[in-house]
Amino acid sequence: MCMRHMKAHCPRPVVPQQVCSRYAMLRERHRRGTLAFVLYASILGWCFVAPRTETRPMPRCPVRAAAGETKSGSHFWRAAQKVAGNNKTDVEAYITEIKTRAGQHMNSSQVVDRDEAVKALVQSMESTGLLTLVLGGKNLGKTFLKQAALRACSSNVVVVSADMRDMPGTSLLDAILLTANKTLMEIAGDNDFSQYVPSVLGIISSAVSAIEGLGPSANPVGTFMKDMAGIATSRRIVRSAIDAFLSRVRASSKRSAVVVDEANLGLPGLTNGQDGGERGEAKSALAAITAWTKQGKLTSVVLISSEFAYPFCLQATGLDLRDIGRVIVIGEVPKYDMLKMLQEDWGMDADLANIFYKYFGGDIYTTKQALDMLMDKKDKFNPFAVVDCPGLPSCVEDPEARAHLENMAKQGFSPVRNVKTDKGARMIAEENVGGVIKEGAITFGLPDIFTNTSCEWAVIPSSYHMRLKIADKLKNIFPSGTDATAPRAVWVRQLSKPRKDYNFDASVALMSLFKDGEEFELIGNAFKINASVVDVDDLKEAIEKKEKLTIAASKIDVYRQKDGGWVKEEKMSASLRDTDEADCYGFVLPSAGVASA
């Protein structure tokens, strides 16, 4: 991966005044719905993605700490103080310098590039007949990746590139028409297209006049269009004009592409299709898109949205999800590129850059927000207060959603056995905490989570930082209907390696199991640990207290049951699973370990 320099003025055929405020699209944070889109988007296995390992069946795996360290972010301030001291400068001056450089970098012509994402966008633009959805958070650089793709796109492709943020309240078809009008002006001098300009210009100008309420056109085509408006709706006028433009482009031996940034603002629209008129506009737009792509192979359409539930919104408006040919999910900046940017462009030292990456991953905008908050809060800085997710507490309190969250915090995902009936997974998606993906879906930077499992679906956190927030909330919020102070019960029983000369006695509930050639006997009955135990280390301490042992808890070995055998827990931070008297944990004492009572 490399850092690319982008030109200060990024050519956009559509809206020339829209140029590089490098992170103009990074102004808003989380809104409704998150990766719920993949619940629908991956039905056909579209998307663009990548890998990881190990999956776990749905039983919850309680977590202590993907959030690892405490809520206090004082180590951020201490790290900054250390660097400032080494450089013989004041810590506030040091952070101010980083903030200044960060702001300059975010508004400069530089961009942390993601070659594969740009390549995927170019392929979509150049694939006539393909409908593509591009999804990602408001802070992940979709607009600038789009601009890079526009520059890399073949010169034989005429791109109508609209940005709905420049046309608030405008329907999608109207926005495409207005942009096509500007695009026509830009390509009027093209030798291959010049002969078609007069006829297309008349049609488009008349349609623009109609939708802007500018009165009758001065040319015959305009008069015809106005007369037709008395019978047909303005939507049909607009649709006919766009059809004419796209048809003329194809007749010129060129290809066309329609690219709409923040498309959700125009389709379904600002009320999300709740308004009757808006809903009608949305249905017309969907019909046109289907005709241009799947049916007529007239153009390619790329709809970009920061709403992760966008496919769901389109489906509710009437889109057949099978008509979507591809979904591209824009992920965070890769670790190497992010750390390089933080150090070389923002001016952080390596230690401070790593601390920021540990908490905020490759999310540039959130990292900048955290830097601003660190300056304000100093040693009282709380990294988990940077991003607000109002729906997270309710998910943590809901037992079904919480079971998934525990797995997500522990390993980054949670298998979903039945996506239609899993209320917990759906709630997580609706509250913008995470999203559901299907096996076969692809995106950038996600693990391969469908190895060694029969599950075809999984729920994942919406971001790296969200995974840490989930873990933090799990430690502090208990499921609804439970006593927050009630200890968690875990069942255990003692195991022992049999002596060579051991005389088997039925009174000893003997049972032989093997692990790596070792034979264990079950000693006595299983018993319950009533204590606040979260991981293996907690369980060891609880066993030591319960059994009144004279040995240190660290000397106890803990085993879990698996496939009819006992498997030693090697990690003290390993989260405990739900147990009962039969499916309990086992523990082995060293030979010197004896109970005092």
Account of the 3D structure:
- There is one protein chain.
- By secondary structure, the protein is an alpha/beta fold.
- The chain folds into four domains: 34-65 and 389-476, no CATH class; 74-110 and 333-381, no CATH class; 115-329, Rossmann fold (3-Layer(aba) Sandwich); 488-588, Ubiquitin-like (UB roll) (Roll), CATH 3.10.20.
- It is 39% helix and 15% strand.
- It has 19 helices and 16 strands.
- The protein has helices at residues 36-41, 74-86, 91-106, 115-126, 142-152, 172-187, 197-212, 220-229, 234-251, 276-295, 310-317, 335-345, 350-360, 364-377, 392-397, 399-411, 423-430, 464-476, 536-546, and strands at residues 3-5, 110-112, 131-135, 157-163, 255-261, 300-305, 326-329, 414-416, 434-438, 457-461, 488-496, 513-515, 518-531, 557-562, 565-568, 585-588.
- The strands form four sheets. The protein has a six-stranded mixed β-sheet, covered by helices on one side.
- A hairpin with a 2-residue loop joins strand 14 (557-562) and strand 15 (565-568).
- Helix 2 packs antiparallel against helix 13, helix 3 (91-106) packs antiparallel against helix 14 and helix 7 crosses helix 8 (220-229).
- It is elongated and about 95 Å long.
- The termini are far apart.
- Keywords: Membrane, Transmembrane, Transmembrane helix.
- The chain crosses the membrane at residues 33-51.
